[in-house]
Amino acid sequence: MAPQRRGAPKAPEGSGTAERRRGSSTKSVQAPREVQTKWLRTAVLGACAVLAGLLLWSRLGGDDSITEVLAHRSEILPGRFIEVPCSEDYDSHRRFEGCSPRKCGRGVTDTVISRDEAQRIRSIAEKGLSLGGSDGGASILDLHSGALSVGKHFVNLYRYFGDKIQTVFSEEDFQLYRDVRQRVQLTVAQAFGISASALHLTKPTFFSRINSTQARTAHDEYWHAHVDKVTYGSFDYTSLLYLSDYLDDFGGGRFVFVEEGANKTVEPRAGRVSFFTSGSENLHRVEKVHWGTRYAVTIAFTCNPDHGIADPAFT
């Protein structure tokens, strides 16, 4: 049988030994409390720091679902192209050999349109949109059809304003617009290995101005993910020319290619051209603009000549 241990002799009541034990016990209780208090204080400060970081990220237009930037605002890209498998969207439409997408993908370039040209193109948008503008955060100006956002509706600016248009725009404005559009068309054709003459401008092709004003109608809700070929059956190739700079002119508003677990984003930069095939392989959206104003022009192309539109003319 194992020997039994004898307990320490009990100190007489009121003895110094008992007092020392009580003091030691009190300190042992206080120490964990002090540690808990310090950890709590640290945790609160850490939580505040994380919250501040999230608020800053949101302020700058961040989106935690984005995992890769396809084109940074600070880059000057001569050309970047990523090929992706084509969807079946094109199979339900009439195909045009040598034009309808067989090679699908997305690309970005900063060397087709200069920043000075982008500023001059933006001034066209500013002049036209000064005639109206949406009550919500998204306004459009379509020089081809004449569509202009006014309040909660659209008007035909050529009919609505008549001869006043002659004092707003100039022939030089329209010539620059046509020249820029043609260079974008050539860029798209070269990237996808097709003839530029096989592409036809299609509708809607339009300027957009987006700010942080609350949406008033469904037309203002530009941030929903969508497929251009589904939304506009005539689209085969979509391009965007950005007319303002991400984080200098606005926050949020980045262009996002939506992919499971690996979204890709394009950070707008004045003069930057982004282009892609219009099917489900390029599901996309635009982040909400949190501050400032974002300008761009969407230029769409079709392979079907029946869906083609003419360049706008200054008359």
Strand content: 25-35%
Using the 3D structure, state the CATH architecture: Sandwich
Helix/strand class: alpha+beta
Distance between the termini: 115 Å
Query: How many β strands by DSSP?
Result: 16
Mean pLDDT metric = 85
Helix percentage: 25-40%
Q: In total, how many domains does the architecture comprise?
A: 1
The DSSP helix count reads 6
**Would you identify the CATH H-level superfamily?**
q2cbj1_9rhob like domain
Q: How are helices and strands ordered from N to C?
A: HEEEHEEEEHHHEHEEEEEEEE
Strand order of the largest sheet: 2-3-13-9-16-8-5
Task: Point out poorly predicted stretches.
Answer: 1-33, 35-64
* Whole-angstrom Rg: 31 Å
Coarse shape: globular
Oligomer: single chain
CATH fold label: Jelly Rolls
**CATH class (first level) name:** Mainly Beta
Q: How many strands, what sense, and barrel or not for the largest sheet? A: 7 strands, antiparallel
Protein name: 2-oxoglutarate and iron dependent oxygenase domain containing 3
GO cellular component, one term: membrane
Domain Fe2OG dioxygenase: 203-305
InterPro entries: OGFOD3 (IPR039210), Oxoglu/Fe-dep_dioxygenase_dom (IPR005123), Pro_4_hyd_alph (IPR006620), Pro_4_hyd_alph_FE2OG_OXY (IPR044862)
Describe the protein.
With 315 residues, the chain is α+β, with helices and mostly antiparallel strands. It has one domain: q2cbj1_9rhob like domain (Jelly Rolls). The chain contains six helices and 16 strands. The strands form four sheets. It has a seven-stranded antiparallel beta sheet with strand order 2-3-13-9-16-8-5, with helices on one face. It has a four-stranded mixed beta sheet with strand order 1-12-11-14, with no helix packed on it. A hairpin with a 1-residue loop joins strand 6 and strand 7. The radius of gyration is 31 Å and the shape is globular. 34% of the residues are buried. The N terminus is likely disordered.
